[in-house]
Each structure stands twice: as structure tokens, then as C-alpha cells.
């Protein structure tokens, strides 16, 4: 049996095409049928690498008894959150309003036949568990309530919709000033995990935006404690667990405080952002260790997650229908691999201990590889052991890959390639090739698209995050090449974003089916609002100062929350610092600037840019005009060093 998902592009929807549940994709057909037949709607949102989504499919959606219940009484709609982030964001807010806290995936929402939500849950088990009703019992309860109390459910749904779509949004603004910097530093010191690094308890995410903000704070203050917090966190993450010591790349998060027990899923957006962070750490510390981790991460993405110059979204956690089995080793497997590699028997037990491989076997949380000193792993046969364990992995079925091509996530990866190319030139042609491919595939007749698959024409139009991240990558391409075509294209996209999504300082994430507000919080990657403000700030500095008014108005609108709690939205905090301190643009002829492209990331002032101009020497300018002239670049370095300190 095949339902209505067989012709969809999304790998996640295709996974469910043979469920006995009569799934529909989101669209008019499903909603018209609900109205025509007077049936409520069951909406399920997930993504292909989501383990709980997979579990719920096996437990419920593949069961004919459950499918019969759903098919008889509901119109069932399946949505891929990666393909339709607008729908997902809308119903995550619905979930929060109904349940009083944030949700997760899968997200299950019950709606009236008119499409009004009245109940929402995350994963629903097939068997009752603690205070959770089992899925079939819940469905039967909702069937009865919809039959007997539809008027009450509709009233509840209308109340939810009033909260989601208020007639007026109260705006509280406060003064933007440099007091934010002290607040950033003090909050970071209060939250810092001095034992393991990072700023939270488990589950533990890299929080790349916070760490990047702190590196800027260090550049502006010289506070060595701030630098220690960042570098200590990065060294701890690099030990293993969250980092794959065998193939390279990072997993999304860990379930423990020490970064050692990961949720086994690698995404292109996470690895792009982590690469950027390790590159920043290298430039500030001068230690090749951070650069090598970044390059190893990039090389993994280029080898395993790239095809036809574009990057896939996610490497799944599952293989052989067992969660994470591909990435784990039993003690016996490790020793056998060491033996086959010719490692002396007397060294094997010590080597296993050094890699945290124990005799206790638990496929959920044991025997991930961890090394205590990743900078200098002074362990006999260390490299031979990793090679042996890599060969052991090669015998196993490779985890599946979600092959959806997301414009924003590709832009993030290409951004990191351009940034790396300023250290290692071999990355530059790869970055240019990928950016050209992305524009060719996703920017058609001046219309930007959000997602597609290889050899498919994209259908879903772009959201704010796509405009923001692609524009930012184009500016990074300009910084790496001084090719003004990239800058012109970024300006064109920024103008379109302003036209589509900006209104009096506020930004929308999407227009159309759902007019959703864009978030200023960095979850799980930097907010599209902050990223677009960064783009507009760069264009203001490099092209036309008129864009600065959009930067100020946007920061002003969100100023109350940013100034009070900057670590809640660190990328926005970074933009407040950048706006207040201002960019310094070094202007000179291209021939004089090109040798210094490689120096851009090591300049002491964090908000520095280069711009081609017809000058004999080097002009230094900000938003108020040009304030200095230096004959040699060494003079520029001295000026920037003086501008660096704020205390």
C-alpha cells in the first residue's frame, strides 16, 4: 500500500510513503478533504534523522490497528521540519502555548476540520508510560471529545490562535550602550562549567554563538579568563564523545555533562558553525591544534556529506536498525581490531583504557572514543589504534544520510570553506565551486528557494534564514576574493529580504501560509534576524551607509531583552557590540589589499573589513567617514590595536 507521500521530494516523507496510515503532504488537498468529510486533522512533524520519530513510526504508524483508527476518524498530514521550517516554527509555538514549555520532535498536533489546533504533544508512546497515555487511547479520547465537545475544543483553538496572532505587539525598547559587554562577561563567568566547559548541564550543546561572542569580548577587553573559558571548552569537546575521533566531524549534543555520550547525529549546520569556531580559536591562540580540528571537520564533510558540490543535511544516528551501532565499539571488537593491525598484545588493554573503551557493553552509552589530551595524545600506538578502529567500522553498514539540500545549511558550510581558505588555499576553489552550484540550483529567475534534492527542481520558496545565510556567505566570499560580484549579489538579496520580511524594525521568518515572526534566539543555530542584521551592517560599511538605519531599528526593537540577557541571544549581543563599536574598513587598491586577505582574521579589532578603492596607501574609515591614512599595512595594524581596547 502507498499513501499520498510517494511523489514528495523530502526523504523523511518518502520514509513514510508505505505506512498504512493514509498520510497526505501539507496542502490544499488534505485541508479540503477534512472540510468535505467533517474530520479533524492529525498533523505529525519530524525529520529523517530523528530517533524518536523513527520509534513512533515503528510503534504506531506501521501498525494496521492504529492506522485503521487514524484513517477512519482523521485526515492525517505529515511534515518534514527541514523542508518546511515555517510550519514547524508555527506549531512549536502552538505546542508551547498548550503545554507551557517548549517541545521537540516528533510533534503531534490535533486540529479541527478548519485547521485550528486544540491539542499538541511530542513523542507519544504506543504503551502507557508513567503519566503518558498510550497513543491509541489518546486518539480514542480525542475522537470522543471531538464528537461530543467540538464547540469547546474550537473555542480553545480560537484562544490559542489569538495568542499566536495578537492584534498588537507591545514593543519595549531600551538604550543600546556598552554596559552590555560587562553583562556578557559576568553572565558567562556565572554560567561557566569550570569542570567540563560549556555553559549548561546535560543535554549539552556546543553553543557556538555564545563562544564566538566571548572571543569578541576577549578581543575588546583582553580578559584572559574569557579566553580560557572558550579554549577550555573547545579542548574538552575535542577529546572525543561529541567529536568523532575516527572520521572527524561533531555530533549534535551529548547526554552527559562531560561531552562524552553523544546523540549520534551529524548535521551540516552544526559542523559548519563548529568549524568556524575552531578557526577563530586558532587565529586568537596561534595553536595549530584548533586549526587541525577545523580542517578535519571540513574534510569529513567534503568526503562524506557532499555530492555535486552541495552538502547533504544530516548523517543519521541509526544503522542496522540499532541506534548508534555504527559509531560504538565493544571491548572485544577493539582488541580484535588492534590484533589485526599488529599492535602488540601487551599494549592493547592499556590502549583501550586510554581511549575509554571498557569491558562494560551498553549500546546506548558506552565505548564512545575519548582521549584525555587531544592536543598531545602521548599514547603508544594511538594512530595505529584509530586506523584499526576505522577499518572495523568499514565492515559495518554505513548510516543513512538525509540527502535533502537546504540552502541555509549549505551556505553555512560554504562560509566555513571560505574562512578556512584564508589559511589553506586549497579550500578556495572548493568554496567557489560550491557557492556557484548553490546559486545555480537555488536562485532561479531572481527567486530564491529553500530546499531541494539532487537532480530535482526546487519547489519551496526561501525563508528569511535562507536570504540571511546566503547573503552572509556571499560577503564572506567577497572578503576572501575581493570579487565585487559577490557583494553586489549579497546587496540584491538583502534588498529582497527587506522587501519581503522587514516592517518597522520587526522581521518575519515567513510569509504566505504562515506569517511567522523570526526568532532572535540562537536555537539551534544563530537567529536569522541577527544574521540578516550582520549582513546589513556589512553592506552599510562596504557599499551604502543607508542600510545602517535598518540595523539600528532592528536592534532597537529587540533591545529590551538583548540588553538584559545578552547570552539568551548571543548573536544579537554580538551585533549590539558591532553596531556600538562600528566597523573599521581598510580601503586601498586591490593590488595592495590582496596580500592582506590572509591577515583579515588575525586583526586585533574584531569588526574589520577590507574594501577595494583607488588609494595610494591605506585609508581607515567607519560609518562617520574616513579618519586615518597609512602608507603601509603595518601602520594599519597599529591603529587597529589602539582601537581594540574599550577598558
What attributes characterize this protein structure?
24 strands, 12% strand, Glutaredoxin, globular, single chain, alpha+beta, 647 residues, 5-stranded mixed β-sheet
Structural class: alpha+beta
CATH class designation of the domain at 11-164: Alpha Beta
CATH topology of the domain at 11-164: Glutaredoxin
Distance between the termini: 69 Å
Helix fraction, binned, reads 40-55%
**Architecture (CATH level 2) name of the domain at 11-164:** 3-Layer(aba) Sandwich
* Shape, per Cα inertia axes: globular
Provide structural commentary:
The strands form eight sheets. This protein has a five-stranded mixed β-sheet with strand order 1-3-2-4-5, with helices on both faces. Among the domains are: 11-164, 3-Layer(aba) Sandwich (Glutaredoxin); 318-398, no CATH class; 584-644, no CATH class. A hairpin with a 7-residue loop joins strand 6 and strand 7. Helix 11 runs parallel beside helix 16 (407-421) and helix 17 (427-442) packs antiparallel against helix 18. With 647 residues, the chain is α+β, with helices and mostly antiparallel strands. It has 25 helices and 24 strands.
List the helices and strands and how they pair.
Blueprint: H1 11-15, E1 23-25, H2 28-37, E2 41-46, H3 51-61, H4 64-73, E3 75-80, H5 85-99, E4 107-111, E5 117-121, H6 135-148, H7 150-164, H8 179-191, H9 208-221, H10 224-238, E6 253-254, E7 262-263, E8 266-267, H11 268-285, H12 288-304, E9 306-307, E10 310-311, E11 314-315, E12 318-319, E13 322-323, H13 331-340, H14 345-354, H15 382-394, E14 401-402, E15 405-406, H16 407-421, H17 427-442, E16 443-444, E17 447-452, E18 460-461, H18 464-481, H19 484-501, E19 502-503, E20 506-507, H20 528-542, H21 548-557, H22 559-564, H23 570-581, E21 584-588, H24 590-593, E22 608-612, E23 618-622, E24 625-630, H25 633-644
Parallel strand pairs: 1-3, 2-3, 21-22
Antiparallel strand pairs: 2-4, 4-5, 6-7, 8-11, 9-10, 11-14, 12-13, 15-17, 16-17, 17-18, 19-20, 21-23, 23-24
Helix pairs in contact: 4-6, 5-7, 9-10, 9-11, 9-23, 11-12, 11-16, 13-14, 13-15, 16-17, 16-18, 17-18, 18-19, 18-20, 19-20, 20-21, 20-23
Amino acid at each position: 500500500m502507498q499513501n499520498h507521500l510517494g511523489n514528495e521530494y523530502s526523504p523523511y516523507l518518502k520514509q513514510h510513503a508505505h505506512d498504512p496510515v493514509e498520510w497526505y503532504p501539507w496542502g490544499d488537498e488534505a485541508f479540503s478533504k477534512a472540510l468535505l468529510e467533517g474530520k479533524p486533522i492529525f498533523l505529525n512533524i519530524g525529520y529523517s534523522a530523528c530517533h524518536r520519530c523513527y520509534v513512533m513510526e515503528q510503534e504506531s504508524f506501521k501498525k494496521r490497528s492504529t492506522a485503521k483508527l487514524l484513517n477512519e476518524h482523521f485526515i492525517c498530514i505529515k511534515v518534514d521540519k527541514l523542508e518546511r521550517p515555517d510550519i514547524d516554527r508555527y506549531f512549536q509555538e502552538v505546542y508551547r502555548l498548550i503545554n507551557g514549555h517548549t517541545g521537540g520532535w516528533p510533534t503531534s498536533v490535533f486540529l479541527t476540520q478548519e485547521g485550528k489546533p486544540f491539542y499538541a504533544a511530542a513523542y507519544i508512546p504506543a504503551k502507557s508510560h508513567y503519566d503518558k497515555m498510550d497513543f491509541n487511547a489518546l486518539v480514542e479520547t480525542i475522537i470522543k471529545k471531538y464528537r461530543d465537545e467540538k464547540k469547546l475544543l474550537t473555542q480553545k483553538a480560537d484562544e490559542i490562535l489569538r495568542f499566536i496572532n495578537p492584534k498588537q505587539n507591545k514593543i519595549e525598547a531600551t538604550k543600546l550602550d556598552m554596559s552590555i559587554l560587562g553583562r556578557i562577561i559576568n553572565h558567562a563567568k556565572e554560567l561557566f562549567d569550570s569542570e567540563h566547559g560549556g555553559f549548561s548541564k546535560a543535554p549539552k550543546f556546543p553553543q557556538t554563538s555564545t563562544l564566538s561572542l566571548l572571543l569578541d569580548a576577549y578581543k575588546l577587553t583582553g580578559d584572559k579568563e574569557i579566553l580560557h573559558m572558550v579554549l577550555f571548552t573547545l579542548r574538552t569537546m575535542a577529546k572525543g564523545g561529541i567529536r568523532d575521533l575516527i572520521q572527524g566531524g561533531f555530533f549534535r549534543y551529548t547526554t552527559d555533562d562531560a561531552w562524552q555520550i553523544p546523540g549520534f547525529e551529524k548535521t551540516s549546520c552544526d559542523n559548519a558553525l563548529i568549524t568556524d569556531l575552531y578557526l577563530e580559536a586558532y587565529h586568537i591562540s596561534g595553536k595549530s591544534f584548533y586549526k587541525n580540528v577545523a580542517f578535519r571537520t571540513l574534510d569529513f564533510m567534503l568526503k562524506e556529506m557532499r555530492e555535486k558540490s552541495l552538502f547533504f543535511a544530516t548523517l543519521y544516528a541509526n544503522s542496522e536498525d540499532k541506534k548508534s551501532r555504527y559509531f560504538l565499539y565493544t571491548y572485544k571488537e577493539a582488541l580484535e581490531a588492534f590484533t589485526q593491525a599488529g599492535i602488540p598484545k601487551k599494549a592493547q588493554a592499556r590502549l583501550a583504557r586510554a581511549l575509554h573503551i571498557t569491558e562494560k557493553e551498553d549500546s546506548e552509552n558506552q565505548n564512545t572514543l575519548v582521549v584525555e589530551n587531544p592536543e598531545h595524545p602521548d599514547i603508544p600506538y594511538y594512530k595505529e589504534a584509530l586506523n584499526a578502529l576505522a577499518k572495523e567500522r568499514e565492515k559495518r553498514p554505513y548510516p543513512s544520510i538525509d540527502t535533502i539540500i537546504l540552502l541555509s545549511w549549505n551556505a553555512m558550510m560554504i562560509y566555513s570553506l571560505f574562512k578556512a581558505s584564508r589559511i589553506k588555499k586549497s579550500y578556495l576553489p572548493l568554496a567557489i565551486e560550491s557557492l556557484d552550484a548553490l546559486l545555480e540550483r537555488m536562485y532561479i529567475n531572481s527567486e530564491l528557494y529553500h530546499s531541494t534534492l539532487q537532480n530535482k527542481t526546487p519547489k519551496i520558496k526561501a525563508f528569511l534564514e535562507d536570504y540571511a545565510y546566503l547573503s552572509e556567505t556571499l560577503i564572506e566570499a567577497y572578503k576572501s576574493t575581493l570579487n565585487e560580484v559577490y557583494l553586489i549579489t549579497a546587496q540584491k538579496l538583502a534588498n529582497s529580504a527587506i522587501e519581503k520580511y522587514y516592517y518597522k524594525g520587526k522581521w518575519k521568518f515567513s510569509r504566505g501560509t504562515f506569517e511567522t515572526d523570526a526568532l532572535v534566539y540562537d536555537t539551534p543555530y544563530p537567529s536569522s534576524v541577527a544574521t540578516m542584521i550582520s549582513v546589513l551592517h556589512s553592506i552599510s560599511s562596504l557599499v551604502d551607509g543607508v542600510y545602517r538605519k535598518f540595523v539600528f531599528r532592528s536592534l532597537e526593537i529587540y533591545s529590551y531583552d538583548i540588553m538584559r540577557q545578552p547570552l539568551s541571544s548571543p548573536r544579537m549581543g554580538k551585533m549590539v557590540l558591532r553596531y556600538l563599536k562600528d566597523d573599521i574598513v581598510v580601503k586601498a587598491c586591490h593590488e595592495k589589499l590582496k596580500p592582506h586577505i590572509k591577515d583579515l582574521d588575525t586583526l586585533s579589532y574584531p569588526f574589520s573589513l577590507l574594501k577595494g578603492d583607488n588609494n595610494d596607501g591605506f585609508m581607515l574609515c567607519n560609518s562617520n567617514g574616513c579618519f586615518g591614512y597609512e602608507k603601509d599595512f603595518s601602520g594599519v595594524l597599529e591603529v587597529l590595536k589602539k582601537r581594540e581596547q574599550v577598558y
